[in-house]
Amino acid sequence: MKKRWIAGLLAAAMVLSLGTAKVKAADYPERDIQGSIMWSAGGVCDTVSRAIGAIVQEKLGVSIIFTNRAGSGGGVSTAYVNAQAADGYEILFGAENPQIAKIMGTSELDYDDFTPINLYSTTYGAVSVAKDSPYETLEQLVDDILAKPGKVIMATTGAGGLPETVAAMMADINGTEPNMIPFDGENECMTAIMGHNADYTITTLGSAASFYESGDIRILAMIHNDKVPGYEDVPYITETYPDFEKYLPWGPFYGAFVKNGTDEAIVSKLTEVFREANADPAYQELNTAKGCFPMDISGEEAVEYLKKYRAVTSWLLFDSGVTEISPEGFGIARPE
Length: 336
What we know:
Blueprint: H1 2-27, E1 33-37, H2 44-60, E2 64-68, H3 75-82, E3 90-95, H4 101-104, E4 114-122, E5 125-130, H5 138-147, E6 153-156, H6 162-174, E7 179-182, H7 186-194, E8 200-204, H8 205-213, E9 217-223, H9 237-240, E10 253-259, H10 264-278, H11 281-289, E11 293-297, H12 299-319
Parallel strand pairs: 1-2, 1-3, 6-7, 6-8
Antiparallel strand pairs: 3-10, 4-10, 4-11, 5-8, 5-9
Helix pairs in contact: 2-10, 6-12
């Protein structure tokens, strides 16, 4: 009798607890939300995240209080948000970097530990040279690198960054071996080619856009498998080298995430609001100005996109020797 009485109390408590959780989810949000931005103030991740966040907070009726938590390639912000409660009041605004954290040895967390609310913005890699460079086409650049292994200088941002990842793609497809010289960031890479301290670079379009518009550089190719809106005169790489198709579409992205375990009703509400914000003309205009493009994917589509990005990038970096940590150890299958 006593055991049945205790079991009844436990069952009642469980029902009450579930009911309370549903009420909380229905009333969400009841207070301001904290937003952790993975990169420092003023960068593309910061700018597009704050822009979409401003629209989201209006629709939710509460403020999103942003804090920049940069460091360890996104590891500082992922660790912080992961340490908070899974209640929807801590949103991670991040870029693609956590997807290579495990193989780079910078963090034990990646986006498998978070639920994607919305991947709201993307950009593409751009192969750029100075306006007076002798290279007028990507083929000319590739041919010269092949003719002079280790002599043609490529400005990079260091191990694991976009430039070296695309360089690994080109090594696989084209057999190229440039002399890769690291600089402090993408803007510094652009300065290096314009000052003839490097022969070419590969950066995000966001970093190349203003220099391209001013005529200070030429973009030889977009790392994409289709024409990029607004840059229809620039070849996309599969036009010249169709074998790149196996890696594409691929590129940096920016998105909002919550900790795994967050109530499905809260995830659903946030997903709906971010989708509405994506359609806002002011947000789309800012994206274009930053050399970015609205993405607007969520749910299982976002999960699959994240997995593909992780697999492609992880195996490229491992095969090219940038990292000695095998993706296989983390259950990351080699892309077919």
